[in-house]
């Protein structure tokens, strides 16, 4: 079914619409909401889309004052739920925030200030850290997205000590939807087929797909170190199950089919893409994830090819302007045991 496009218009000036997709997030819901209510940026609306939670968290969100809650019968995926929330939002700016993330009080204020200072900026993320056990040093979770020529996207700063490094605001390839603020005008401009996030991704790498599409439309993405938050990563990420692994494997290739510049792939990057894909798939060869990923990829491939044509037809910047963000594949570092997985 074709999804309705994001409503036209600039949105309510200054208003930040915080959109959360919830699926069994009871453990983090209260802290997440308290952090949103403590924001120093006062013009905030909160929209929660519950994906058929069975832990009572959907009903909990529906009871909270000042929260608009949409409830799906089943888990329709992070991307589709976010699209539902954005379609109902009213703000000039849209904040995507995971339920397991807690934004420090000035997060929205600093992110909005960065967007206002950079008219061509379409998205902003902050200095996102991981929760530290008592007495342990804090480490960074993400300071934005980087991407390599083989299509591997990673979180900048992930695992680095949170000791004051990366103190300066900087342009980055893109931002993690775990905690980021987007300009509504960019989301309207970058949507394809009525979708802001591609629902075929379900979850994982849908934010990188948006990063890439925004780049082709000439939008910038920024890291603002004064916008700080903590991301708990509540056990839903990584390579912990066949279901997750098959999505990650398939989505990495869908990402390339939809967005990669064909001339660069055929002329330079294809060997690295093939080698990296073979290595990652070989790592899961003893599990059914590889074969499930192949089936998932083939199912979504025709639509991805159609989307590629649309994305390509709407490019407004030369390929070199986007290509400069694609980093050489760091084979030596990744071939160390666990090297790529740590990213």
Low-pLDDT ranges: 235-239
Calculate the mean pLDDT score and round it.
Answer: 90
CATH architecture of the largest domain: Alpha-Beta Complex
Instruction: Give the % helix.
Output: 25-40%
Largest sheet: 10 strands, mixed
Radius of gyration: 19 Å
By helix and strand content, what is the structural category?
A: alpha/beta
Q: Which CATH class of the largest domain applies here?
A: Alpha Beta
CATH topology group of the largest domain: Spore Coat Polysaccharide Biosynthesis Protein SpsA, Chain A
What does this structure look like?
The protein is α/β, with parallel strands linked by helices and 343 residues long. It folds into 2 domains: 14-231, Spore Coat Polysaccharide Biosynthesis Protein SpsA, Chain A, CATH 3.90.550; 242-316, no CATH class. 39% of the residues lie in helices and 22% in strands. It contains 11 helices and 13 strands. It has helices at 26-37, 57-63, 78-88, 107-117, 184-190, 206-216, 242-259, 262-283, 289-313, 319-323, 331-334; strands spanning 12-22, 44-51, 67-72, 91-97, 101-103, 121-129, 140-142, 145-148, 153-155, 170-172, 179-183, 220-231, 326-327. Strands 1, 2, 3, 4, 5, 6, 7, 10, 11 and 12 form a 10-stranded mixed β-sheet that branches. It has a 3-stranded mixed β-sheet with strand order 9-8-13, with no helix packed on it. Helix 1 links the parallel strand 1 (12-22) and strand 2. Helix 6 (206-216) packs parallel to helix 7 (242-259) and helix 7 packs parallel to helix 9. The longest helix has 25 residues, at 289-313. The radius of gyration is 19 Å and the shape is globular. 45% of the residues are buried. Residues 235-239 have low confidence and may be disordered.
């Amino acid at each position: 079914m074709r999804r309705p496009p994001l409503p036209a218009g600039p949105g309510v000036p200054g208003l930040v619409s915080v959109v959360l997709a919830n699926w069994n997030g009871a453990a983090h819901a209260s802290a997440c909401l308290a952090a949103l209510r403590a924001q120093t940026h006062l013009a905030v609306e909160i929209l929660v889309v519950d994906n058929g939670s069975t832990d009572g968290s959907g009903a909990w969100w529906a009871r909270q004052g000042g929260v608009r809650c949409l409830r799906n019968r089943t888990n329709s995926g992070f991307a589709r739920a976010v699209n539902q929330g954005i379609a109902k939002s009213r703000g000039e700016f849209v904040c995507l925030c995971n339920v397991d993330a807690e934004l420090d009080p000035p997060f929205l204020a600093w992110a909005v200030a960065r967007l206002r200072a950079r008219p061509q900026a379409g998205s902003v993320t902050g200095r996102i850290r991981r929760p530290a056990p008592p007495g342990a040093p804090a480490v960074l979770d993400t300071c934005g997205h980087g991407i390599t020529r083989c299509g591997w996207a990673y979180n900048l700063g992930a695992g680095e000590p949170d000791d004051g490094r990366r103190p300066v605001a900087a342009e980055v390839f893109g931002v993690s939807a775990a905690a980021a603020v987007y300009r509504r005008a960019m989301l309207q401009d970058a949507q394809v087929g009525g979708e802001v996030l591609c629902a075929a991704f379900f979850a994982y790498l849908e934010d990188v797909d948006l990063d890439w599409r925004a780049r082709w439309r000439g939008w910038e993405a920024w890291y603002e170190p004064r916008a700080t938050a903590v991301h708990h990563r509540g056990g839903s990420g990584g390579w912990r199950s066949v279901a997750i692994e098959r999505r990650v494997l398939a989505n990495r290739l869908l990402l390339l089919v939809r967005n990669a510049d064909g001339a660069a792939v055929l002329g330079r990057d294809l060997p690295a893409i093939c080698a990296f894909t073979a290595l990652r798939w070989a790592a899961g060869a003893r599990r059914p994830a590889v074969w499930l990923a192949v089936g998932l990829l083939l199912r979504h491939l025709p639509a991805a090819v159609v989307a590629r044509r649309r994305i390509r037809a709407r490019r407004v910047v030369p390929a070199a302007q986007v290509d400069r963000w694609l980093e050489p594949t760091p084979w030596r570092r990744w071939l160390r045991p666990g090297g790529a997985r740590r990213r």
